[in-house]
Amino acid sequence: MQEFLRQEHWGNTYLGIGSFILILLIGWFLRKTVSRFLSHFLYRFFKKFSDGLGHDEFIDLLKKPIQLIILLFSIYLAIIQLEYPDIWGLTQEEMEGYDRVLRRFYGTFMAIALTWLMLRLVDYIIMVLYKRAQETEDTSDDQIILFMKDLIKVIVVILAIFFVLSAIFKLNITSLIAGLGIGGLAVALAAQETLSNLLGSFIIFLDKPFKTGDTVSFDNITGTIEKVGFRSTQVRTLDKSLLTVPNKNLIDGPLNNITLSPFRRVKFVVGLTYGTKSAQIKKIIDEISDVLKNHQETKDDYTVAFTDFGAYSMDITVIFFVYSNDWNKMVSVKEEINFKIMEIVELNGCDFAFPTQTIHVEKGS
Prior knowledge:
Layout: H1 2-6, E1 8-9, E2 12-13, H2 14-50, H3 55-79, H4 92-134, H5 140-168, H6 173-190, H7 192-207, E3 215-218, E4 221-228, E5 232-237, E6 242-246, H8 247-252, E7 256-257, E8 264-272, H9 278-294, E9 303-309, E10 314-322, H10 327-347
Antiparallel strand pairs: 1-2, 3-4, 3-7, 4-5, 5-6, 8-10, 9-10
């Protein structure tokens, strides 16, 4: 048996080839079991921090990165069992060069796998912190935690890149950073818009014009803030579509935080036909004012006035405030008042105007 194992094929003994295949098979079949075991082991260090929350989520987040790490380690351990075939005719210097390339490939992919593992740990930590933040009444901490998630991930990736360049490819990071500083000006000029949006995100967190869950209005857009990111903010509009807005647009123009206001303003025009008498208009104005004055959901500060002689109507402007910043509540109150205004106009024997034209034709002499 020993003589058979010592026999060579392509410059490798059957023992080396068998070890190569055996290590690959062991790594492949044990990767799931070992990854689950290591995930459970790592969870012990996070158990106190998590207060028992998210055990299954922790295992699901970490098992795939750990499986990749085990697989990469198994492949590297299997490859080093083999020798370069004599038929290739490699010199000692060439073999050392191939070994160096192999180690760099292994180190790079292992660094990627470890970075993936670190990013998953960040996801878990943020998930626990976000659950805690949701238990508080203030939603600003929810917004900060989601922002910090993206920031920490960017830092982890940048540090991983520097580590690979320094430890694996043996590059001088100090010289590299100095070189990047020379070209940094050109990059900054080319990325002005991106940098403006990034600066906008920090201004949003410092000034706090809104927070997650607030209803805001800007550029004829009304919606609820769902997430503030590095470059953009996600807004859920009234028609339930998800709108992505660059942060620069939110800080450069006027923005109305409707959630911070206890009232919702309603303004519209009631157009009456030109056949309406002045006494009728005065009575309609008085009755609409009584409706707004006696309505439980409207503020005392209201305006009902005959304001314009329009192109095809005599216009009564109605302005009032609803005791709620909720959109649906405002629409419901507005609908109720609109129906009462229709009844008032009908009971006074008047009609609503609509675009019309009167043509006078003169007969020739």
